[in-house]
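cron nightly-structures :: item 1 of 1
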Amino acid sequence: MLGKASELEQRERRGIDYLHADVADPDLLEGQSFDAVVCSFGLSDIDDLDATVSNVRRLLRPGGIFVFAILHPCFPGAEGVSGAWPSDGSYYDERWWRADGSLSTLRHQVGANHRTLATYLNTLLRHGFQLDQTAEPRPTPERSGNRPDLSRLPTFLVVRCR
């Protein structure tokens, strides 16, 4: 995906620099700082959450914000869609796993790290972040389709902290 994005940037400049790197590397972007860091559905793909959040804290300018969205750690799944934790375990089993739902093709291919909500929030607090805002968007009727059970629990969690 980065290759395709870089090609598009070459054709139509938008001022975006793409970087393929380990976000847990303590030397990542050494000497640089940012007003905001955004992570869209990537934290469960990262093995070392603690080192990653430490880097985000280091890279933010004073007053900077960190916003991330994840599959809600409490999402139990739905017909054909794997939840946020392994089907052979429970919400409290934190580990890497592969989805087994018939509609969860990407998570089946690459796997994910399940963590509890407490793990995410306590990691942020341990690194000096303060929660600014959270959201648990309600699925739209279009998203829920003929599955009213999907509108009973949040699918996603969005967090903004400073």
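cron nightly-structures :: done
The first strand starts at residue 34 and ends at 40.
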